[in-house]
Amino acid sequence: MKFRRSERLIDMTNYLLEHPRQLVPLTFFAKRYGSAKSSISEDLAIIKETFEHRGIGALQTVPGAAGGVKYYVKVKNEEAEPFIEKLCNLIADPERLLPGGYLFMTDIIGNPSIVNKVGRLFASAYCDTKIDVVMTIATKGIPIAYAVASLLNVPVVIVRGDNKVTEGSTVSINYVSGSTKRIQTMVLSKRSLAEGSNVLIVDDFMKAGGTVNGMISMLYEFKANLAGIAVLVESENIEERLVDEYLSLVKLSDVDVRAKKINVNKGNYFVKNKGDKR
Amino acid sequence: MKFRRSERLIDMTNYLLEHPRQLVPLTFFAKRYGSAKSSISEDLAIIKETFEHRGIGALQTVPGAAGGVKYYVKVKNEEAEPFIEKLCNLIADPERLLPGGYLFMTDIIGNPSIVNKVGRLFASAYCDTKIDVVMTIATKGIPIAYAVASLLNVPVVIVRGDNKVTEGSTVSINYVSGSTKRIQTMVLSKRSLAEGSNVLIVDDFMKAGGTVNGMISMLYEFKANLAGIAVLVESENIEERLVDEYLSLVKLSDVDVRAKKINVNKGNYFVKNKGDKR
């Protein structure tokens, strides 16, 4: 066939994109295409260069008999920055203001292409971190959690505010909502989280951090470890933040219901991703 | 650069996969790579052939000045069949049995690679249908709904069982749960669904169809149209099915709690996808 290499490049690109953070042995590709391992190596060199050049992601080559190639998401600042700016503008729209100073965000969370991009940014930020599970709380955090988890190649566990028969035995904890100071309950199915798991907590919105803090307490109940916290929007001007270390894309400062003004800035994504991680 | 075409093929593959059901003008690619439109056409012919040959999807070329190329998901039966069989085996595990004959499915729904594959199958089945929105009900249907919606390039709207301040004004309806015959309420944010939208309803589980039927009533409230219904698992042996036309991947027949036996078969996916759609 005349475009043997072309076909391999297209199929390998698709395969790698569909299997992030998975070590694929060179022999797998060699067998798949009936090609020599040397040809596969050349193909991968081309894909690696293009992925990096075009900001698609990074390919890591592991040498040796048990080696292979691993694709992971790595977002360039040129991609992240305009996206976060666009998000800020979207969120600053005064039409979003709801009674009580709440913000309507359902349309943003309902847009898979935005959600997938948010997932890309978070997956990129945590690409070097050991993560076994992404945890979120129903309902609005779920889409973002899946977008991240898909790219990190790990399962999602969903904490709920109520008990369902379909969850089997559950662990239930009480927590104090940071902003309203009300005592609330969250439950997690006993079967869903293994001891010692490294957990990335993901949510759509964080005010004082009471809900996130509740999820951290849940981790203790399951003897699991906190690997990171990532939120789409954080709210500034909080007297007492209950959570220290987290990543945010957007920071909400002043919400003035009377003047119909929402003050939005970039979150700490770039600050966090500058020094320690890359 | 020596692998000009190679780079284009890799980047175009990634771009098309990230933009399903979107018409991309040839001039867009020509400009992106500084190439002649004739070279882009040749590239696309190679990608089209590989996508079809490898079962990645289909490329549709629209000729003319306003033309371009459109990628959409098209799953081959060779891919769908073993996957659905694997799903059946997974679900038939007697460890899933919960008190009351319910099934624990949280681990299946929590696995993004399974969920994404379910999304691929549904997106493929509805690739020729006009769909503007995917609708689901919180909580378990949400991951599947996003997986489908991503590939159909449409937003998701989430019906809820309770009212939240962050939803703004809502429309609330009562519906009768088909199996328990209890009256329940579901709400949908007024802003989230436009009049005349063509809606694909997606859920994880359907017994008699009361919940799906509730969502259909919700569509009437919003003057929206039903474009299709897709469920991961349907339950057989239902005296009175409230919904006629739907797609299912897995069919649950007998759940015998005492004998710890779950009888699972393939759903109607292949039946539905044989005659009318391809």
From TrEMBL, chains A, B:
UniProt subunit comment: Homodimer.
InterPro entries for the chain: PRTase-like (IPR029057), PRTase_dom (IPR000836), Pur/Pyrimidine_PRTase (IPR050118), PuR_N (IPR015265), PurR_Bsub (IPR010078), WH-like_DNA-bd_sf (IPR036388), WH_DNA-bd_sf (IPR036390)
Family listed: Belongs to the purine/pyrimidine phosphoribosyltransferase family. PurR subfamily.
The name this protein goes by in its record: Pur operon repressor
Gene Ontology BP terms: negative regulation of DNA-templated transcription; negative regulation of purine nucleobase metabolic process
Gene3D superfamilies per the UniProt record, alphabetical: 3.40.50.2020, Winged helix-like DNA-binding domain superfamily/Winged helix DNA-binding domain
Endoplasmic reticulum as UniProt keyword: no
Pfam families, per database record: Pribosyltran (PF00156), PuR_N (PF09182)
Ranges for domain Phosphoribosyltransferase: 111-246
An MF annotation (GO) of this entry: DNA binding
Domain Bacterial purine repressor N-terminal: 4-72
UniProt keywords, alphabetically: DNA-binding, Transcription, Transcription regulation
Keyword hit for Transcription regulation: yes
